[in-house]
Amino acid sequence: MKSNPHKVVLITAPSGSGKSTLINKLLTEHQHFGFSISATTRSPRGKEKEGKDYYYITSEQFKKDIEANAFLEWELVYEGLYYGTFRSEIDRILREGKTPILDIDVQGALSLRKEFGENALNVFIKVPNLEVLEERLKKRNTDSEEKIKERVMKAEEELTFENEFDVVIVNDELNIAYEELNQAIMKFLESNHSEL
């Protein structure tokens, strides 16, 4: 299927909802998508790699990039922890003739909705409930108890925005969630506008 280079797909989820797994599956199965690599001031987790999962930069550099207007959007997600989308990333993917897929937080997605209008599909992925989310975060074994509690509280806050999104997918069963995500994106890319 031909990619529409003017459309972007914004995928949001509370930490631990399986967003990265779903995005990786999309990228593996569809050559016409390009992953927009976000910048962050946090350290790599697990097997994450520089320039593949994120651009890991210092807070000082991040602030310089903000001043230089290098970001399409940026957020202070947790205290001292910045995330942002470089303008150059979207340009790179569009130059390759691909549709950008962004793994982005709630505020970033809502901010980019203003930037791209009907050319953006905003997808919100969530787990059935916060207990399941907490369990998944514990199994990930990458965060302290305190950090897990912080992430669950953040998720609770993020869930209040789900009605602002075009599509909401409950990731209870990965394959079913993937099919729903895939179908929603294909429908969006084939339409002349983003109304689903």
Kindly describe this structure:
With 196 residues, the chain is an alpha/beta fold. It has a single domain (8-190), classed as Rossmann fold, CATH 3.40.50.300. It has seven helices and nine strands; from the N terminus they run βαβββαββαβαβααβα. Helix 5 (130-140) packs antiparallel against helix 6 (145-159). The longest helix is centred in the C-terminal third of the chain and has 17 residues, at 174-190.
Condensed summary:
This protein has 196 residues and is of the alpha/beta class.
Distance from first to last alpha carbon? 19 Å
The biggest sheet amounts to: 5 strands, parallel
Regarding quaternary structure, what we see is single chain
User: What name is given to the CATH topology?
Assistant: Rossmann fold
- Biggest sheet: strand arrangement: 2-7-1-8-9
Characteristics of this structure?
five-stranded parallel β-sheet; four-stranded mixed β-sheet; Rossmann fold; 7 helices; alpha/beta; 196 residues; disordered N terminus
Secondary structure elements and pairings:
Layout lengths: L7 E5 L6 H11 L3 E4 L1 E3 L13 E3 L2 H9 L3 E8 L2 E6 H9 L3 E5 L2 H11 L3 E7 L3 H11 L4 H15 L7 E4 L3 H17 L6
Parallel strand pairs: 1-7, 1-8, 2-7, 3-4, 8-9
Antiparallel strand pairs: 3-6, 5-6
Helix pairs in contact: 5-6
